[in-house]
Design goal:
With 130 residues, this protein is an alpha/beta fold. It has two domains: 10-59, Roll (2,3-Dihydroxybiphenyl 1,2-Dioxygenase, domain 1); 63-130, 2,3-Dihydroxybiphenyl 1,2-Dioxygenase, domain 1 (Roll). The protein has helices spanning 21-31, 76-85; strands at 14-18, 36-39, 43-48, 51-57, 67-72, 104-105, 111-117, 123-129. The protein is globular, with a radius of gyration of 16 Å.
């Protein structure tokens, strides 16, 4: 086996930490619409495109100021409208020139991105690639 490609075929497992699972779990399930596939003493488990996402409780978790996970979407305008209708507020970044909804367009037009936070303050994103 090529040691450079040892994980190339591995299925990803996404781990997102939360201080308050009772608050975060409905956000991922009901607001983001991720199918919940399980729950155990350590995490709530959701499906993201066939890969498991574990929403793990960490009592002293501190959210990062940068994106921890992103979703590639086909229609960012529809996704942003749907999330906004469910109460999601999009992050605004000085100097980015985001549109009225908070969507930023890359200078080369290769991507459009919107960022938002989960209940713990973890920054998530949705991106439409050209």
């Amino acid at each position: 086996m090529d040691p450079q490609g040892i994980l190339a075929g591995a299925r990803p497992v996404v781990i997102i930490c939360t201080r308050d699972r009772a608050r975060a779990e409905p956000f991922y399930r009901d607001v983001l619409g991720l199918p919940q596939t399980g729950s155990d003493a350590f995490a709530a488990v959701f499906d993201i495109g066939g890969a498991p996402m574990r929403l793990s409780t960490v009592a002293d978790w501190t959210a990062h100021e940068h994106t921890i996970f992103g979703f590639a979407v086909a229609d960012i305008d529809a996704v942003a409208a749907s999330l906004a209708a469910k109460g999601v507020a999009f992050n605004r970044y000085p100097g980015f020139g985001q549109d009225e909804r908070g969507v930023w367009t890359a200078p080369d037009k290769s991507a459009r991105v919107a960022w938002f936070k989960d209940p713990d303050g973890n920054v998530l994103s949705v991106t439409e690639f050209s």
